[in-house]
Amino acid sequence: FLHRRWTRSDVDNVSKFYATHKAPFNTEYPWPKDLFYDIVEECDGFFPVKIEALPEGTCVNSHVPVFQITAKGKYAGLVTFLETVLCQVWYPTTVATLSRRVRQIVEEGFDRSVDEDRKFLVPSRLRDFGFRGCTCTEQSVVGGCAYLLSFEGSSTMSAAYYAQFMLNGGKAVTCTIPATEHSVMLAWETEREAVENMIDLYGDGIFACVMDSYDYERALREVLPSVARRKTERGDGYLYLRPDSGDPVETVLMALRAGHEVFGSEVNSKGYKVVKGCGVLQGDGINIDGLRRILEA
Question: What is the Cα–Cα distance from 50 to 72, expressed in whole angstroms?
Fold first, then answer.
């Protein structure tokens, strides 16, 4: 929208639009038609304005202007024509701000409970599954790329692809892992078979299994122990247990306890238990306050 070149035909069409964009018996909607013809004739069709903005990704306090528009002479009024379009920066700014605050919370949790040699895991502790909540693919790219300023785990493939090839010269920016969802689990006769299939396919790497397709507590109590040997024999892979319903704090703690009982754990230098080869991926009902409660629990 901002780099588009105007033509006389464009101005003619806008004139026709505003001639009909009025309430019944009202006057024609006023707009500076002659000024836009001057843009075509005198400025080669481009808005003669200057836009100055903070570099993308800059962290600033609230109330600090992030951009300003200036123009001279008869074109000074054009700055208000661009205001609405440029104000759409609110969306990626909001996503980037929320992601940064979440990262600060995660870093505080790591400082309290994680050994120094595991701090490299911080950028992967939040995952982006936001694509399905967007109004269009373009929104998923804008918001997904804003999120990537603070984290590297994303299943929003549109944003991951765009960031890699349009913004980073083909170098990967983000990553994800194989993970089941409910239709996959239900496609098997039993949950055990579904989990074993994931172990057979991805058991030497990192993968995730949703565990509440039928009965979350039963899956942790019965299914997880039944596949433990197969997972151990498969190699040094890492299994994420994924609750997807219930109270996030309770379901995370239940999964951690189940993982400890099945696979055992070690105590790190800060006195916290670390489950061997197993963790929890909590995606349902997460917000910034719920995240704090989980980490405090």
Answer: 9
Q: Look at residue 276 and tell me whether its pLDDT is greater than 80.
A: yes
Is beta strand 206-210 parallel, antiparallel or unpaired with respect to 238-242?
Answer: parallel
CA atoms within 13 A on the CB side of 248: 16
Answer whether residue 122 shows pLDDT above 70. yes
Whole-number average pLDDT of the chain: 94
Judge if pTM exceeds 0.85: yes
Position 1 confidence tier, pLDDT thresholds 50, 70, 90 = low
Which residues are CB-contacts of 295 (< 8 A; sequence separation ≥ 6)?
105, 106, 108, 109
Closest residue by Cα to residue 248 from 296, 200, 214: 296
d(CA 260, CA 267): 11
Place of tokens 């899956």: 219
